[in-house]
Write a structure and sequence with these properties.
alpha/beta; Rossmann fold; eight-stranded mixed beta sheet; globular; AB hydrolase superfamily protein c1039.03-like; hydrolase; AB_hydrolase_3
Length: 436
């Protein structure tokens, strides 16, 4: 969630104050002089440009796109967990820059929290077109206070640590759960089983879930509160998989390989996790949704449903929503390109690889019924709607829901996105209960 607040702040300042790239040093020099003035007691208060003054509030349901009315530490993340032949490489900053093909100014700017930097000012430009949900503003305030650098600006280990810290700060640790949890080994891949007390006695449905995080970060820990809430509400047993993260030079398909391994294990050992003869499905958010589509490409039968939350299902960063949310606060297209630069780098044909890029799959007709939940302020939004249309055209039952006024990543932060995640949980639970 803290992906690119830094980039957004710099670019918005340049646009609002008319500062071009060529004048950047002049502006920085002025900032240094003002700092010297403050230290010498000669600083004069400067008027803040602030936000546009437009109200930024809550709206529950609006159409996709612009508002119709107006012409939001404890790391269990593993790097090849126990696989000594595939160690996590730390890319140097120049290597990360080259892999993402991004300019220096777009990546290495850290966010300075000042009195002028508020959630309202950060979202002011998009608030002219969309109603920013109140919970988005609260989440942004938390991210600003954390003051973490952009994920692309630090070693990947630090980015992982920052993400887990943020999730634990917002969601809390040792969240209560009306049910039981168990750590299991799914063929060499660690996983957590959530068995809700609300699980129907005569129906034992199971969902294998893959967490999001660009295939680079996050873990079962970051999604613990989310999956406990979803299990309680839906009555479905959830198996949360701790797949290996990238980069993994000796096994660049590690997340997908682990996902297939864990899924096949669950299919063969459902009695051990409480699945019995009930239905079986897959679920995932963001990169986890990408993994789901990869698994259903490898294993084309045996699934009764799939749950996709703002899935990464297209490698094309020129879709309209990608262009619109190029520098959106939180996760944006700049971060998406950085992510693809690392995860797709080992594959020259990544855009044409159906295991990596669901947009080129020609076998969608074998997919199980799906519920897709998207975030309105997300560069991945249009790829999600496109997937829904393609699934429907292939004869697959699809339910598509849009959560308005929130950015990518809200689903794993129910500690702050309380009502919006509750709405997402309700959509998913209503869908899953049809399979009981």
């Amino acid at each position: 969630m803290y992906w690119q607040l830094a980039v957004f702040k710099r670019e918005k300042e340049e646009k609002s104050e008319g500062v071009g790239v060529g004048k950047r040093r002049e502006k920085e020099k002025g900032a240094e002089e003002r700092q010297a003035d403050r230290q010498g007691g000669r600083h004069r208060e400067r008027e803040s440009g602030g936000s546009s003054g437009r109200a930024v509030g809550y709206q529950s349901e609006v159409p996709v796109g612009p508002k119709a009315s107006d012409p939001a530490l404890r790391s269990t993340a593993t790097s090849c967990h126990g696989f000594s032949s595939c160690q996590h490489s730390r890319l140097t900053r120049p290597e990360r820059l080259r892999s993402a093909n991004l300019s220096f100014s777009a990546v290495w700017i850290s966010l300075s929290v000042t009195k002028m930097t508020t959630p309202e000012t950060v979202w002011a430009e998009l608030a002219k077109t969309y109603t920013i949900h109140a919970e988005t503003l609260v989440a942004t305030a938390t991210e600003l206070a954390a003051n973490h650098p952009a994920a692309s600006a630090v070693p990947i280990e630090e980015a992982r640590e920052n993400s887990i810290k943020l999730h634990l700060e917002i969601n809390g640790e040792d969240v209560e759960f009306d049910g039981t949890t168990e750590e299991i080994d799914t063929g060499g891949v660690p996983a957590t089983v959530y068995r809700p007390a609300s699980q129907p006695k005569d129906s034992y449905n199971v969902m294998v879930f893959f967490h999001g995080g660009s295939l680079l970060m996050n873990s079962r820990v970051t999604h613990d509160r989310t999956l406990k809430a979803l299990a309680e509400q839906s009555g479905v047993v959830i198996v949360s998989v701790e797949y290996r993260l990238l980069p993994c030079p000796e096994e660049p398909m590690a997340p997908f390989d682990d996902a297939v391994t864990a899924t096949r294990w669950v299919m063969k050992h459902r009695d051990q996790i409480g699945g019995g003869e009930g239905k079986l499905g897959l679920g995932g958010d963001s990169a986890g949704g990408q993994i789901v589509m990869g698994v259903t490409h490898e294993i084309q039968s045996g699934f009764d449903f799939m749950v996709l939350i703002y899935p990464t299902v297209n490698c094309d960063t020129q879709l309209p929503s990608c262009k619109e949310f190029e520098t959106t606060p939180s996760f944006n297209t700049i971060a998406l390109r950085w992510r693809f630069g690392i995860t797709n780098g080992p594959f020259p044909d990544a855009e044409n690889n159906p295991r990596l890029n669901a947009a080129v799959r020609q076998d969608l007709g074998s997919s199980p019924p799906a519920v897709i939940v998207l975030a309105q302020l997300d560069p991945l939004r249009d790829a999600g709607t496109d997937l829904a249309e393609r699934l429907k055209a292939a004869g697959v039952l699809v339910r598509l829901h849009m959560i308005e006024g929130v950015p990518h990543g809200f689903f794993s932060l129910p500690g702050v996105y309380k009502t919006t995640t509750a709405r997402a949980f309700a959509y998913i639970s209503d869908f899953l209960k049809k399979f009981q």
